[in-house]
Amino acid sequence: MTFMRQELIQDIRNAAGCKPTAGTLYKAINRAVRKQMAKLEPVVSKRKLYYISAEFLLGKMLTSNLIHLHALEDVKTLVGEYGWTWKEIQDIEQEPSLGNGGLGRLAACFLDSIAELNLCGDGIGLYYHFGLFEQRFLNHKQTELPNAWIDTVSWFDRVPVDFQVKLPRCTLQPVRYDMDVIGFDGKKNRLHLFDVESVEEGIVKEGIQFDKTDIRRNLTLFLYPDDSDEQGRLLRIYQQYFMVACGAHMILEEQKQLGHDLHRLYEHAVIQINDTHPSLIIPELIYQLMQEGIRMKEAVRIVEKTCAYTNHTILAEALETWPMSYLETVVPHLCGILQALDTAADQRCSAAGVALIDADNRMHMAHMDIHFGKSVNGVAALHTEILKQSELHAFYELYPKKFKNKTNGITFTRWLHACNTQLYTYLMELLHMDSWQDERLAELHAYAQDADVIAHLQAIKQEKKREWCTHIRNKQRVAINPNSIFDTQVKRLHEYKRQQMNALWIIYKLKEIRKGNLPKRPITCIFGAKAAPAYTIAKDIIHVLLCLQDIIEHDARVSPYLQVCFIENYNVSEAELIIPASDISEQISLASKEASGTGNMKFMLNGALTLGTRDGANVEIADLVEEDNIYIFGKSSEEVIAHYEKADYCSRDYYEQDALLQELVDYLIGEEMLATGDRKSLHRFYQELLNKDWFMTLLDTREYIACKEQMLKDYENRKLWGRKMLHNIACSSFFSSKRTIEDYDRDIWNLG
Ligand code: 26Q
Questions:
Q1: Residue with the nearest Cα to atom 14 of ligand 1?
Q2: To the nearest 10°, the Cα dihedral for 8, 14, 18, 21?
Q3: Is the pTM of this model over 0.90?
Q4: Which pLDDT score, from 0 to 100, does residue 424 have?
Q5: Is 598 designated active site?
Q6: Nearest residue by C-alpha to atom 7 in ligand 1
Q7: In 432-559, where does DSSP find H-type helix?
Q8: Catalytic: 497?
Q9: Which pLDDT band holds residue 314 (cuts at 50, 70, 90)?
Q10: Of 502, 456, 504, 462, the residue nearest 481 (C-alpha)
Q11: Secondary structure (3-state) at 542
């Protein structure tokens, strides 16, 4: 290791010359690191995991790779000698935006932990040239631009592929981009992202518009292109099919090359299907096995023992069902297999609710995964229970043993060591660790009464706040008070996550301040969120928040006490800066709707306290830290589910019976908002909240306000708050994705 480090440093020096620019230096480091990565040997084991996912939200790789090579401190020192800060070098790297949020980031954390645990597992996905999109704010609204993240300096190798994907109207030539994932002890795994040779970036016109029918040129331009029309939906299926056709082919070729008998594929391979986006791998693998001379019945049995499915959502609108007519258009060669699978499933159970193809001739992707996979798992204890007891109850009765819970986790390498080196280093010293061990975090409990330790944790928090203030001032030209309480909600924008409830609180506080009820300490409400381009109400909520930000900023009576800051183009790199700086972690989804959440875990690990509902993994956080160390409010998932069943929630009743709620909601279309924002958007959102409010905002707003007030009050007892911080950090090792991966390996993969 020492020799490797010396060579790495020497290579950087040689390439950088004497007075490199930040760009030259970044390039030199990237090259030198890649040279070391190339020397690593692949991990081997009895069975290999293929983690197939439409998203891998990697984030920048520089710091994480250097940590894995045990060279971060040396390289940082060298960079300092050249007169650059580490942040200046990191800023050069483009972040690949190959994911939306939770599901994609989870896949990236898993790659990291699989390698760290010396398990053999590769990722399979797509190489989207413009990723999701880049968010810009204009006139208090979100606009979208292509995110051109691909750079000549890269972590990926281009690999030719000698296989073609035949579609009814054209044949596509795939090409593969491979990235090494550094593991333990000189070993590595890989991520394989497929692209089409014929893709053409030039067809993107204004914003993110392009010809959705031109599959040869558009296939890998964007992640989840707008699917609000039929052409967009067909393109999604083309993408999904292309990914699985390439993936299945790569898996079978690799297994054949290893000399493995495809009749016993499941002894050597396991395919984890990350939500239903890659579900077509089931019929495609059956098809390709049949091409290898295996009879259909056996092919089905092989696939059944090879594939496992993870469910990440219980929102009905996110469960993929495709009209068979679409599948006839895109994958006619698979339709016979799909029909046969439907018949086979029907023979096992004829209940309509578990059919692959429903009465409207729509194909239910999740149903196929459950019938023809060996396992189905939810991503947090509550989520799995809800799947078993309600959403997938019929399947649970049919296959009780297939259902498993695998509570999500996060990689501490990125979410502590890389993003909060100060805290990481302090904990290493305090707990006398030679090398990091997640479980040893629990030893921090011994210092719960130690005023010095608590003061130290708080000093680190303060330093991270100052760092973020500098960052956001440079990026967005805003001056945030580093001595304010940082109250943060960063996640995709969705009604069920209820950013709109947080907006109502801001209105409440704004009015209180104007009445003269001043907070003891200034508060900064921080948001980061992208809305799907065609999700109108989500964009309306962004509009409301940006209008509030403007109104407050321009009111000299309010702004010393309350600030709103919306982080533009929130992504992994922004998360790495804001999470360590935050005091309050907003996890306020409508109970039963957030499958797990993983941001909640990142905040906890970095010493923020959770303000949340009993939803997803919040439940497990609450069980671990116990009630004095978390702020829980709102109706339970049982109560919420009962409201849906009885269809008895009426937001207008809440509005009419509560003068405060009325005042807050009316503010949305009051003079001040209308003078700042767009009348149509504000009225649309107001009407939505009053007449629909499908995710029951007004149900919990009262309790939310009360709970947040309590939290702000408790913040003033600095010792007590510090003890709660310490307690949260000490309890967080359960949420390491190493623990999650060990669970998957023990109960599903058995990589051996
Ligand atoms: C489906 C159909 C059509 C178009 C888009 C989609 C679609 C796209 C993305 C459906 C779902 C997603 C992403 C889901 C997701 O990120 N889920 C999150 O997964 C995390 C990791 O398990 C959980 O922590 C979050 O609770 C969950 O919301």
A1: 103
A2: -70
A3: yes
A4: 98
A5: yes
A6: 318
A7: 451-476, 499-515, 536-553
A8: yes
A9: confident
A10: 462
A11: helix
Tell me what pLDDT residue 225 has: 66
3-state secondary structure of 47: coil
Ligand 1 pocket by Cβ (under 6 Å): 100-103, 106, 224, 227, 312-313, 318, 320, 379, 408, 594-598, 616
Pick the atom of ligand 1 nearest to 320's CA.
Answer: 2
Measured CA to CA, the distance from residue 285 to residue 296 in angstroms comes to 11
Our mutation pick for probing the ligand 1 site, out of 51, 53, 97, 103, counting the most ligand atoms within 8 A of Cβ, is 103
Query: In angstroms, rounded to a whole number, what is the distance separating the alpha carbons of residues 90 and 88?
Result: 6
Torsion 662-708-465-27 (CA) sign? negative
34 Cα: distance to centroid of ligand 1 (angstroms): 32
Map out the domains of the chain with their CATH numbers.
410-737 (3.40.50.2000)
The neighbour count for residue 95, using CB atoms within 10 Å, is 19
Dump pLDDT digits (tens) for 216-260: 999 999 997 677 899 999 999 999 999 999 999 999 999 999 999
Residue from 749, 737, 1, 48 nearest 413 by CA: 737
Catalytic choice (268, 312, 362, 367): 312
Residue of 75, 110, 104, 111 whose CA lies nearest to 90: 75
- What tokens appear for 584 in the block? 């309050």
**Ligand 1 center from residue 98 Cα (angstroms):** 13
The atom of ligand 1 lying closest to the CA of 233 is: 3
Does 335 score more than 70 pLDDT?
Answer: yes
- Of 373, 374, 413, 381, the closest CA to residue 114 belongs to 413
pLDDT 10s digits, 547-603:
999 999 999 999 999 999 999 999 999 999 999 999 999 999 999 999 999 999 999
285-313, pLDDT tens digit by residue? 999 999 999 999 999 999 999 999 999 99
Mean of per-residue pLDDT scores for the chain: 97
Name the residue of 275, 314, 320, 740 to mutate for ligand 1: max ligand atoms within 8 A of Cβ. Answer: 275
Written as six digits, the tokens of 53 are 């996912």
| DSSP for 665-702, written as a single string | HHHTTSHHHHHHS-HHHHHHHHHHHHHT-TT-HHHHHH
Annotation marks residue 140 as catalytic = no
Compute CA distances 392 → 318, 403, 419, 558, whole Å. 15, 10, 38, 49
Q: Whose CA is nearest to atom 25 of ligand 1?
A: 597
Neighbours of 557 (CB within 10 A): 12
Work out the burial of residue 627: count CB atoms within 10 Å of its CB; fewer than 13 is exposed, 13-18 middle, 19 or more buried. Answer: exposed
Q: State the catalytic residue, choosing from 598, 610, 697, 701.
A: 598
Ligand 1 site-directed mutation target among 272, 279, 280, 313, most atoms within 8 Å of CB:
313
The C-alpha angle with vertex 105 and arms to 56 and 563, in degrees rounded to 5, equals 130
3-state secondary structure of 56: coil
pLDDT at position 352 is 87
pLDDT value at residue 296: 98
Q: What angle do CA 353, 355, 359 make, to 5 degrees?
A: 85
Told to judge if 5 belongs to the known catalytic residues of this protein, a careful annotator would answer: no
Of the residues 60, 190, 461, 602, only one is catalytic, namely 602
**Percentage of residues in the chain having pLDDT higher than 70:** 100
Query: Cα(23)–Cα(676) distance, rounded to whole angstroms?
Result: 41
pLDDT tens for 185-217 read: 889 999 999 999 999 999 999 999 999 999 999
Residue 643 is which amino acid? H
CA angle 727, 730, 731 (to 5 degrees): 90
Choose the weakest-confidence range: 222-226, 272-276, 322-326. 222-226
Atom 20 in ligand 1: residue holding the nearest Cα: 102
What is the pLDDT at residue 3?
A: 77
